[in-house]
Amino acid sequence: MGRRQDTSGWGGNGRSGSVARVLEALRSDGPSSQAALARRTRLSPATINNIVKQLRAEGAAEIRPVNGRESVVSLVSSRGVVVSVQVNVTSLHAALFDFVHRARYDVTIPFSPGHEGGSPARVIEVVRSLVAEAGLETGDLTGVAVGMQAPIARPTGVVTSWARLQLPRWKDVVVADHLGAELGVPVVADNDANLAALAEWTWGAGQGTDTFLYVLSSEQVGGGLVLGGRIHRGGDGLAGEIGHAVLEPGGPVCFCGNRGCLTTFVAERPILATLEAAAGARASSLADVIAAARGGDPACARVLFEAGRHLGRAFANAAKLVAPSVIAVGGLLGEAGELVFDGLNSSVEISNLRTVAPTLSVQLARLGADATLLGGLAAMMDHLGQGLSVLPEWAKTTSAARSFSN
């Protein structure tokens, strides 16, 4: 029977503190020599040697020579099957990662908001379908990770009350408990932006940093904060929700009940509405706006520039509180690149911030639309006390994802 798990810690299978420290170092820094591991973890060379031997015997690490005298240790995984699921308001994405056969299987299901397609029953159906497609049995599953396009309240494990109108089928569902009981495997559940932040910290723009802020901006806006190698959720699980930071107290009403949240300026719907109001132009999606801006449309370029300036204001405020080394922008706005970053970098707030924090780096996220699914994989491997210092190519390559309509 599944139990609600906190994916913020390392080594959920009860590994010793010393082993967990080595795992954390290999995850955060990537492949490292044993001498570097000793310095990072402050463990003796003999202890490091014994832990590396243990991890190699378990198939969780490998040693690779890099020259005639030095070798590096990497986390690897040669066993296990993990399914990662991303539940959005208008779609469901899932990927199965088979570490035995080094294969990945994907599925995408679009649906209308509030449709049965976004229900717990459909998630269970999709997991079982992917397992069958891979030629496996449910008993072969090592675990399942679920990323929700909504905050999950930490004390209860349910979608927080003010976000339930967005995902009505999940009202009062303890996400990890319910799915774990139905599937009979360990389940970790978290906000989609938190998982994307974990993936970017593990394998992307945040690798090697102690303080990392990730902002996901597409249909909605979310954020994930990594402090000292752990996702920081705060007391109620809502830490990192930069999308609901108030920029304009008299601004548009947000679905959370406040006015002038960042989401009301840089999410897909308000950008489309701004474009239509200002230029009388209609676009069906944020991707269309980005494509038109790249094609030379001045109105589309302008709304993206303004979105960047709003992001800059929000980032400056967040940076004053948590002082991240790196802020990464993911989602569709991240993919817009300089169309958004020109506005972000020109914001007065970011300019002022860089005079007192010159080492702050604002970057494009590197994992693209796959970040949440890969973050689910990272979270489950954390829970199992496993890991990957380097993401293998087969795990990055999305299979020809089947797409079903309802």
TrEMBL record:
UniProt family annotation: Belongs to the ROK (NagC/XylR) family.
UniProt organism field: Amycolatopsis sacchari
Pfam family, one: ROK
Keyword list, A-Z: Kinase, Transferase
InterPro entries from the UniProt entry: ATPase_NBD, ROK, WH-like_DNA-bd_sf, WH_DNA-bd_sf
Protein name: Sugar kinase of the NBD/HSP70 family, may contain an N-terminal HTH domain
GO molecular function: kinase activity
